[in-house]
Amino acid sequence: STRPDGAYGIEDVCLSIPCVVGLEGVEKRVDPELSDDERKALQASAQALHESRQGLQVEP
User: Fold this and answer.
1) Residue of 3, 4, 39, 52 with fewest CB within 10 Å of its CB?
2) 19 vs 29: CA distance, rounded Å
3) Closest Cα partner for 31 from 22, 49, 39?
4) H-helix or E-strand spanning residue 43
5) C-beta separation of 2 from 14 below 8 A
């Protein structure tokens, strides 16, 4: 998992998105083209994770 850092309109949560991993960790993120429905579903998942983390009162 990695932070999208604004990709797909998502910040502040880590998601399992395709990445190229090298000896020192993530080298680059691979951002596949998503349909509108896929993008909305990914954003909803990120929002659910964000809300769950808020409920646990865990600092980012």
Assistant:
1) 52
2) 4
3) 39
4) helix 36-56
5) yes
Total of domains in the chain: 1
Q: Would you say residue 1 lies in a domain?
A: no
In this structure, is residue 2 part of a structural domain? no
Measured distance CA(44)–CA(37) in Å, rounded:
10
- pLDDT above 80 for 60: no
Which residues make Cβ contacts (< 8 Å) with residue 34, sequence separation at least 6?
8, 42
The reported pLDDT for the residue numbered 59 is 64
The sign of the torsion formed by the CA atoms of 13, 16, 22, 27 equals negative
Range of the domain at 35: 7-56
Rounded distance, CA 45 to CA 4, Å? 13
The CA distance from 49 to 51, in Å, is 5
